[in-house]
Amino acid sequence: MCGIIGYVGDRPCRDILFRGLRKLEYRGYDSAGISVIDDGRFSLLHSVGNLDNLEAILDQLGGDGTMGIAHTRWATHGRPSTENAHPHTDCSGRFAIVLNGIVENYLSLRAELQEEGHTFTSETDAEVVAHLIERAYQGSLQKAVVEAYRLMEGHFTFCAIAVDEPDTIVGIRKETPLVVGVSEGENFLASAIPAFLAETRSVIFPDDGDVVVVRRDGVFIADLDGNPVERPVEGVDWDDEAAEKAGYETFMLKEIHEQPTALADTLTERIGPDGSVALEGLGLDAETIEGLGRIVIVACGTSYHAGLIGKHALERWARLPVEVEVASEFRYRDPVIGPDCLCIAISQSGETADTLAAMRLARQAGARVLAVSNIVGSQATREADGVLFTRAGLEIGVAATKTFISQVLAMLLLGLYLGEKRGHLSRDQVRTYTQELRRVPAMLSDYLEDGAADRVEEVACRYSSASYFMCLGRNIGLPVALEGALKLKEISYVPTEAYAAGEMKHGPIALLEEGSPVLVVATDSRVYDKLISNVQEVRARGARVIAIASEGNESLAEMADEIIYVPRSDEMFAPLFAIVPLQLFAYHVARCRGEKVDQPRNLAKTVTVE
Ligand code: AGP
C-alpha cells in the first residue's frame, strides 16, 4: 500500500524518482507526488490519478535537484486529491515527508498540533508527521524523526527531508516495508526493491525502529537512542527485466506465462536424486515433526486459497489435522494453540498486516511458525522460525498469478516432505509423486505454447458481458474455483461467487437462470462422478456450463456448453493446471470489458494496513 522512493546522489533525481514510482505503481495509484530539493528550497509536484497524470506535468518540477522523495498513494485517510497526495510539508515549508501505512493516533496528534498553531492542508493521517518534525527540529533531522516516531502509533514507514540538510534523507519503519539501495556516490530508500533495481542490486533491510540516515556518501543506521546498528548489505538476484512487460500487453499476462518458470524455480534443488523432497530452512527437526499435533494455516486472499490446497496435501500425506484461517479473523479470535501446533503463514509479500498479526498471535500462544513467502528479507520471513521460499520472481500485477501457483507447489512439497518424515508415505510413494512433479513445469509450458490461451480468450470474450458468474469445484478443486472467482472479481468487477459444488443445492442454485455462466473445475478426481451430478443440476436450470476438464475427457464435452482442457495429472497436482485457464478467463473477460487489469480499482498489491 503506497509506494515510497527517495534518492540522494550527484545526478538530477526527478526522473530517477519518477522511474522508481513507475515500478511501485502496483502498490497504489490514486494520486502521486514528488519533492526535490533544488537551490535550497523544495520543488513540489502533486497529481491525482495514476502516474500518467504526474508524468504529464513533470516538467514543471525543476530538473536539477539531486535529492528528493516521491510517493504513489493508495488512499486510507482522505480521498484521492492533490491536497491529500504526498509529499506533505510542514507550516514553514522546511520539511517534507512521504508515508506508507497508517498513523492510528493521528487525530489526537493533529488536535494537539493545531492547538499549538500548526495549520493543516490535507485530510491525511500522514501530514501530522511533517508538523511533528517541524516542532521537534533543532538542527538534526535524525533526532526530529525519532521524536516524531516515538509519538506515533500504528504501522507505517516514512521518509523525511529538510531544506536545511540537503544531503540527507531519514527513513524509519514500523511493521511496514523499507529497503535501502546502496550504490557508489548515491543511495536510495524505498518501500520495495523494484523501485531502484535498475540502479543497484545491493540492498539493506532495516528493522523496525532502525533510524536510517541516507546520504550521498553512505548509509548510517542507528537505534532510537542514536547508537550505531550494523545491518548487512545483501545482493538481490532479481533482474530489472522482470519489472518490465517484455512484450506482453500487461504484467498480469506476462506473469501468467511465467508460471512454468516460477514452478521450475520453486522446484530447483528441492527434489533429490533419490526422489525425496529436500526442504531446507524450515526450522523443523525430526523430533519436532514427529511431535506435531496439528497445523494452522493463516493467510489472506489468494494466499488463503493456496492454504486450502495445502490442507489437502498435509492431511492426505502427513496425516495431520489442518485448519486454514483467514488471518484477519484468526487474529481477533482466541484460538486454541499449543506447542504441538505448527502455524504456517502464507504471504507472497511477507508484509500483509493481518497475516503478520496472525502469525505473532500463534507464536505467542506457543506455536512454531513457518512462513511461506516469495520475498527474501520480508517481515514474515524475519519473524518466523523457519521459511519456505517460493521462487516466483517479482510479481507486479495486483492480481496474484505466478505467486499463487508457486505457493501451491510449495505446499504440495511440504505435504510430501512431512508425509515421508512422519512415516505416512514411503520413499517409493514420494518418488512417484516427485517424478510427476518434475514434469509439471514443462507440461504447463507446452500447454501455454500450444494455444491454450487463445482458446480461453475466445470463450471468455463470448461471456464477457455476463452480469454474474458462478464457479464450482469439489475437494481440491474447490480452492481452485475460489481463486478463479477471486480473479474475476478483482479485475473484471463481475460479481462472481464460488461454491463447493455439492453445497450449491442448499441455496446458491436459486441464483441460476437460463444462460447463467457457471465455471466448473472438473478435472479428474476421486469426486469426479459426484461433480458430474452437480453439473447436471446446473444444466437442468438452463445455466451454461464452462468446464475445465482433463485432456481427453470427451464425455464431459457432450454435457458442457464449453470445455477447456488442461493436461491430465494426478488429482493432487490438478490445481497447478486448472487455475491457469481460470486466470486467463478472468483476464480476457476484464480486457473485453475494457478494464485495466494491472491496476484494478480499490486494490493494492501489498496490504500493509489491517
Ligand atoms: C490476490 O490477487 C490479491 N490481490 C490478494 O488477495 C493477496 O493475495 C492478499 O492480499 C495476500 O497477499 P500476500 O500473499 O502478499 O500476503
Topology, element by element:
Layout: E1 3-8, H1 14-24, E2 31-38, E3 41-48, H2 51-57, E4 67-73, E5 88-89, E6 95-103, H3 106-115, H4 127-136, H5 141-151, E7 154-162, E8 168-174, E9 179-182, E10 187-190, E11 202-204, E12 211-215, E13 218-222, E14 234-235, H6 251-257, H7 259-267, H8 286-291, E15 294-299, H9 301-318, E16 322-326, H10 327-330, E17 341-347, H11 353-364, E18 368-373, H12 379-383, E19 386-389, H13 402-421, H14 427-462, E20 469-473, H15 477-492, E21 496-500, E22 517-522, H16 528-540, E23 544-550, H17 554-559, E24 562-566, H18 574-592
Parallel strand pairs: 15-16, 15-17, 17-18, 18-19, 20-21, 20-22, 22-23, 23-24
Antiparallel strand pairs: 1-4, 1-10, 2-3, 2-4, 5-6, 6-7, 7-8, 8-12, 9-10, 9-11, 11-14, 12-13
2-deoxy-2-amino glucitol-6-phosphate binds near residues 349, 399 and 400.
Structure description:
The protein is of the alpha/beta class and 610 residues long. Helices cover 36% and strands 22% of the residues. The chain has 18 helices and 24 strands. The strands form four sheets. Strands 3-2-4-1-10-9-11-14 form an eight-stranded antiparallel sheet, covered by helices on one side. A six-stranded antiparallel sheet has the order 5-6-7-8-12-13. Strands 16-15-17-18-19 form a five-stranded parallel sheet, sandwiched between helices. The mean pLDDT is 93. 2-deoxy-2-amino glucitol-6-phosphate is lined by residues 300-303, 347-349, 352, 355, 398-400, 490, 603, 606-607.
Key structural traits:
single chain, 610 residues, alpha/beta, Glutamine Phosphoribosylpyrophosphate, subunit 1, domain 1, Rossmann fold, 3 domains, globular, binds 2-deoxy-2-amino glucitol-6-phosphate
